Amino acid sequence: MFPAVFTVLTPSNVSAFIPINTRLSIFSKPNSKLSLLPRVSSNGPDSTSQHSSSLSGIDAVESTSSGLGDGYVALFVRMLGLDHDPLDREQAIIALWKYSLGGKKCIDTIMQFPGCINLIANLLRSESSATCEAAAGLLRSISSVNLYRNTVADSGAVEEINRLLRQLSVATEVKEQSMGTLWNLSVDEKLCRRMAKSDILPLSIKYLDDEDMKVKEAAGGILANLALNRNNHDAMVESGVIPKLAKFLVSNSEGSKVIKKEARNALLELVKDDDYYRILVIEEGLVPVPLIGAAAYKSFTPRLHAWPTLPDGTEIEKTPGQNSKFGASELLLGLNIDDKNANIDEAKVNAIIGRTQQQFLARIGAIEMEEKTVSECSNDQLLTLLPWMDGVARLVLILELEDKSAIVRSAESIAGACINEHMRIAFKEAGAIKHLVRLLNCDHNEVQFAAIQALERLSASNIVCRMIEAEGVLHPLISILKSSEIAEPVVEKALNIVAQILDPSKEMQLKFYDGPVNGSEKMFDKAKSEIPAGLRTEQAISETNSRNAILESDFIARLVEILKSSSPSLQEKAASVLEFVALADQTLASVISADIESGLNSVFQQKLLKISADMESDVEEQFSEAYTIEFEEAGRAISAASRLMTRLLDNEQFRHKTDSSHFIGLLREILRSRIPLYHKDWVAACLVKLNFLSSSNTSSDPINVEVTLFETIPRLLEQIKNSFSRETQENAVVELNRIVSEGVVDSSGAIISEGAIYPLVKLIEEGSERAVEASLAILYNLSMDSDNHSAIVVAGAVPALRRIILAQRPHWERALRLLRNLPT
Fold it and tell me: Which positions are tagged coiled coil (predicted)?
């Protein structure tokens, strides 16, 4: 009998001993066993019996042998080498991938062999989809272990996967495993920064539209991890990630729970980073909503036994009929709101549906169940994103709770969400206004400020502003403003709301309103007639009573005090409210007694203007450019005060009490200042009226000249330069020609200093006949001074004049006279 000979299996002969089916199944179960089979010699008569006896001993060997996977990992790793047959390499990578699914211990066994990662990454270049899938799957398993992520990234796997996924045709299985690998790698902060510098971002956005849900989930996970780094946000937004991710949250049927979670996390990081990104997210139909904890909703007490009302408080009319015995008619009221015969506009329908859903979740204790895993904000405050209909209803629901901190966060979220007319109308229909007005009477300062902030953003809508006034907001706001201990931000926002309500232009806009400014026409179909006819008289009486509170002497004194000692933004709001007082109270007794002259004097003597007045022209110009915002705020305050003073000058008592010469001097200095030109129109009007009404008219001509030089001419030149209307340009240049032809002192210098020659030359080539005639006349008058010749020539007037003359266009003779004046 010949002894049995054992042969050690090597990569070169392992395929001869292990059938393909066995090779595939070896590592399918990490705990499977395999013994080394004895090689039987072919010599000798007892070879057959010896072979059978050796086979009978396999079971005994299996019971005591070490694990199959651990024993053969080295062999299969060696089979990944480039010197082996592609089929053998494919079988080896598949076997190793299956083995790696056994957990970290199996992955540790594979990673014992240096260089195996490079061989695995190299297989991503294979033409076989099965090989690429197995290689990506094995890299995905290895990258799931924190210890090996850097090793995977250093092997060039990211670049190979990027190349692989950019091919025109990639198998779904390969995409799933490849994207899963990138998802695992993106968990590491350093690797995430490295991936952001590559083309992984646009690739991930592209695969959000893939048909396979697993690929979408991996793409969403990568983007969520990239969003954790603020440096990636600009690139993500510019690549259009917000609409792509928002669609998974807006639609209930779109996407799985995993992709919804990842999309929410990514968008929340963008929302927390920048207000502009928050606006973009809201425009996609999502509203940021604070998570306050399910326990906070226990204080919510729905009115179960009261007659139903619409969310905005409008009562539903009771129809004469027999009520049900057990109140089913009241309980079931509103179930048919989608019925066309219900005669309810879309905004109210959405408000009813949103309120019903959120109140139901709150009553059964299921609210905030899905959002409890949302990532934490920097201020230890949680946020989630809800479709706008649910988000609006949730925020209004929180306003009804007892938790003060939750109310503050809800009101702040409402203020942040009011980015357009659609959202402001949605909050109005959801009933937010009545709760916010109620919160103005709260003793809690933070709650009060948050409510004022939300009402200020809502009041930007003309329709919502009327509703805010109808809810009686003026009385609490006036009470707040009367206190001198209120912080300036609160005073500013409260004054802004009052000014918005009292703005007479809003009344006119409502009367001549033709449609929405930015979308959703259905919301406005009933906007003008949404107040029942029977309630309009009562509302008008209420508005009249509340507006009468504006005329109280102590409130007017407070407004004048704000004019004297506040910032320009507050001065502007106070002047606007006082203008309403001047229109409503013709006697002006309370205004005059409050020393309104001192308030106006303070507004006209802005510190910024005093500083710039002492500077040289070049330095003053640089100073005005450096403080553009401050000059804008000062200009708005001065314009509002000038408008107020123009109204006050209609009162004889005010005219006698006012020092006209003093205010004329102040307004003349303002005309020469660097405040924006569009704020000087009321300054000029007030100055002319004040000069006309004053007893001494000796300075009449100089004042008119100053108004012309510092307001009229710059305004006309601004229209010539920047207006897109040919008619506006024509009228401006004709008016400018009239001023020049009348010989107003220094008018030519003012035109030259404003850089008007270039647009005038452009007009003689492109303007209408009337504009060409006026432009030629102005340029001819300017050419009478030889100092202006170079500026006219440099502006290209000579070629333009020659073309007019050669073509014998209208006014060519005037062009010839101008050309003769120039040094050509």
Answer: none
Domain 69-282 class? mainly alpha
Question: Which residue, chain included where needed, has tokens 């946020």?
Answer: 383
**Residue 3: DSSP 8-state:** P
User: Model pTM?
Assistant: 0.75
| Spatial distance between the Cα atoms of 268 and 32, rounded to a whole number of angstroms | 46
At a CB cut-off of 8 Å and minimum separation 6, what does 457 contact? 414, 415, 418, 424
Chunk the chain into consecutive blocks of 10 residues (it has 824) and report each block's average pLDDT, rounded to whole numbers. Answer: 36 41 42 33 35 32 39 86 90 93 91 90 92 95 93 92 91 94 93 88 92 94 94 92 93 81 94 92 94 86 62 61 53 52 73 84 78 45 89 94 93 95 94 94 92 95 91 91 86 92 64 44 42 47 67 88 89 91 81 90 88 73 82 92 92 88 90 87 88 62 78 87 88 88 77 85 87 89 85 88 86 85 80
DSSP H/E element including 287: strand 286-291
Q: Residue 625 CA to chain centroid, in angstroms?
A: 28
List of residues 6+ apart from 681 with CB closer than 8 A: 639, 711, 715
Cβ atoms of 387 and 284 closer than 8 Å: no
User: Would you kindly state where each structural domain of the chain is located, as residue ranges?
Assistant: 69-282, 548-612+624-695, 708-821
In terms of CATH architecture, what is 708-821? Answer: Alpha Horseshoe (1.25)
The number of CA neighbours under 13 Å toward the Cβ of 572 is 17
Taking the C-alpha atoms of residue 245 and residue 256, their distance in angstroms, rounded to an integer, is 13
Residue 67: DSSP 8-state: B
Residues listed for the chain? 824
CA distance readout (Å), 49 to 7, 58, 594: 19, 15, 124
